[in-house]
Amino acid sequence: MAESAACPAFQLGRSRYDQSSFLGRLRHFVDIIDPSTLFVSEIRLKECIKLLDDYKHGMLPPGVSDVQLWEAQKIKQAIIHPDTGEKIFMPFRMSGYVPFGTPIVIGLLLPNQTVVSTIIWQWLNQSHNACVNYANRNATKPTPTSKFLQGYVGAVTSAVSIAVGLNVLIQKANKLSPATRMIIQRLVPFPAVDLGKCVKSV
Predict the structure, then answer these.
(1) Would the CA dihedral through 19, 96, 93, 199 be positive or negative?
(2) Measuring CA to CA, which residue among 116, 100, 119 is closest to residue 189?
(3) Which phi and psi (to 5°) does residue 113 adopt?
(4) Is residue 166 a contact partner of residue 122, using CB atoms and an 8 Å limit?
(5) How far is CA 62 from CA 39, 55, 101, in A?
(6) Residues 6+ away with beta carbon under 8 Å from 196
């Protein structure tokens, strides 16, 4: 009873949390990236879709609570693309961004990287970001595939160039102590990744 009383009335397509407050927006974001939705079965997904369809058509079974409706909407939005109605591939869902993206971030921050390893990790990072962006795109406005490819190639090229270039410069900086050099090298992925995102969004 306490959970139902604290739960706001269900609104289809709206957020469960107050978007006018920072805490509400934070809870909404945490809800979106909740990795527990990655383990939802096909049967459970179909149940959630049916429950929301029943609500939409005024045929909701008796005894269904707002909590159940909010949970059903959370699961559907985490798995099904709102425009295409198709399932989003698991690694490219927003709920999969942390578990699938974390190993790449760790790889970017590994010490004593070679030129080859730097290229590989930057390529993996930009490829993962590009796939997430494409999988969660606004499909109501058709965008040529060539535009996505141009952004992807530009992002990979710029990120790899910056990362490799800065690493080479740091290695040649003989005046820097080994400790200082290592600290600066740990920071190299940040400008490389940020520039790649900027190029991709242009």
Answers:
(1) positive
(2) 119
(3) -80, 145
(4) no
(5) 28, 11, 41
(6) 122, 125, 126, 129, 155, 156, 158, 159
Specify the DSSP element, H or E, that contains 179.
helix 178-187
Helix (H) and strand (E) counts in the chain: 9, 0
- Residue 14 structure tokens: 């709206």
What is the secondary structure of 140-174 as a DSSP string? TS---HHHHHHHHHHHHHHHHHHHHHHHHHHHH-T
What contacts 5, CB < 8 A, 6 or more positions away?
none
Residues 155, 199 contacting (CB under 8 angstroms): yes
C-alpha 69/C-alpha 158 separation (Å) is: 44
Phi, psi of 73 (to 5 degrees): -65, -40
- Kindly report the number of other CB atoms within 10 A of residue 11's CB atom: 12
Return phi, psi of residue 80, to 5°.
-100, 130
Q: Which residues contact 66 (CB under 8 A, 6 or more apart)?
A: 4, 7, 8, 9, 10
pLDDT in tens, 105-146: 999 888 878 889 999 999 999 999 999 989 998 888 877 888
Whole-angstrom Cα distance, residue 151 to residue 172?
32
Which residues does 134 contact at the CB level (< 8 Å), separation at least 6?
A: 92, 148
- Asked whether the whole model's pTM tops 0.85, one would answer no
The answer to whether the CB of 78 falls within 8 A of the CB of 94 is yes
- Mean pLDDT of all residues in the chain? 86
